[in-house]
Amino acid sequence: MNWLTEVLGTQKPIIAMCHFPALPGDPSYDKQGGITKVVEEARRELLSLQEGGVDAIMFSNEFSLPYLTKVRTETVAAMARIIGQLMPEIKVPFGVNVLWDPAASLDLAVATGAKFVREIFTGVYASDFGLWNTNCGEVIRHQHAIGAENVKLLFNIVPEAAKYLGERSITEIARTTVFNNQPDALCVSGLTAGSETSLQTLQLVKEAVPGTIIFANTGVRLDNLEQQLSVADGAVVGTAFKADGVFHNRVDVQRVKAFMDRVRAFRANLK
């Protein structure tokens, strides 16, 4: 038995994204509505996802566009405030993702009791955000220094809107990432949020590191979930749960229910 059952309660789990609106300091922040409006929007999304039956939730500052690779204090403070206010209503395991700052994600996890984080922990990239460098050794030491050693680390090895600076195959990246860093899971993504994860890439990664949990990180939808979950050990889902499948829209609880009904049927057939 791997940690998925212990932490998330099931095999082939669906981690739903709860996307926070723009936060204080972000270019699109609604100063008139203020943090109260952000909390209410986040509450609406959380309750819709839980009513739809998802297995776990990942809170992220998805609308802090354009992203920073070292976030500011106000971002983490605002996210902690939001999650703290929602805590009495959170009924499923949850994780956090402070885009794109792994140390800040771990800080937020410790502050809120999150079970997992997803981040770009390794690699050097040419990206929409400039030259994107990482320091996994420093981050892992920080994890242990702040008492976050039990927080599960989901390594995104195909960053959205970025390309590895050196020419390396996905199988090379997967093997060395696992050997050097011992991640709790690898996340395989498409080009942007909502873009379908290549099934061939998922298969290559799964074959390269067969003992490692693999998540399909973007683009899992009602029409491809059986195909994606036949290879991946679980999925992170955001856009597919939004009204009309549009990234900027609110969560549509009926879409969530239809999706999770299919997931449960798929899981039942595995037994």
UniProtKB/TrEMBL annotation:
This is Sgc region protein SgcQ. It holds the Pfam family BtpA. It comes from Hydrogenispora ethanolica. It comes from the Bacteria. InterPro entries: BtpA (IPR005137), RibuloseP-bd_barrel (IPR011060). The lineage of its organism: Bacteria, Bacillati, Bacillota, Hydrogenispora. Transmembrane segments: none annotated. Belongs to the BtpA family.
